[in-house]
Amino acid sequence: MPHSGMSWAGRMREDIASARLRDPAARGGLEIALLYPGLHAIWAHRLNHALWARGWRFPARMGSQVARWLTGVEIHPGATIGRRFFIDHGMGVVIGETAEIGDDVMLYHGVTLGGRTRDAGKRHPTLEDGVVVGAGAKILGPVVIGARSAVGANAVVTKDAPADSVLTGVPARARPRVEGESTARILSVPDYSI
């Protein structure tokens, strides 16, 4: 459903602009709109989430499964997602039912925002505004990843992290972000401490 009074078309334009900003391979708006499966998954999620919120659970779940088959991205219709969310490449991304994603968040392929329990209630992660998650990372349980944090490729996160953290390793350990530190370096060359 539109956010802050913004129309569906306005949100779609904002999503395309966000993809252009974050993907150096993006050549134009039409290419992004037609060929980016992560974007298609987000657009499908908005429709499915609106159905879920209105109590139309089966059609919402059916829609999420169709989107999964078409895009390779699984987003539960109960997940809450903010503005300008971008999934780069997308294949293998899984976002659980009680996940909460803030504004300006970016995920790479193979990321899981999953649960660790079958208990009812909040069981999936919360990613605050501006979080970036590297390829293959797993963030599990009802943890909170603070704003502007970066999670390195293949990290396994099971504990909360404050804002402006860098999380790397298996299990992931958080450290403060160094001023001027390249997000690209964090995501591609994690400092594993197994």
Automatic annotation (TrEMBL):
GO terms for cellular component: cytoplasm. The lineage of its organism: Bacteria, Bacillati, Actinomycetota, Actinomycetes, Micrococcales. GO terms for biological process: cysteine biosynthetic process from serine. CDD domains: LbH_SAT (cd03354). It catalyses: L-serine + acetyl-CoA = O-acetyl-L-serine + CoA. GO terms for molecular function: serine O-acetyltransferase activity. Pathway: Amino-acid biosynthesis; L-cysteine biosynthesis; L-cysteine from L-serine: step 1/2. Pfam families: Hexapep. It comes from the Bacteria. Belongs to the transferase hexapeptide repeat family. Keywords: Acyltransferase, Amino-acid biosynthesis, Cysteine biosynthesis, Cytoplasm, Repeat, Transferase. Its EC number is 2.3.1.30. Its main location: cytoplasm. InterPro entries: Hexapep, LbH_SAT, Ser_AcTrfase_N_sf, Ser_O-AcTrfase, Serine_acetyltransferase, Trimer_LpxA-like_sf. It is found in: Cytoplasm. This is Serine acetyltransferase.
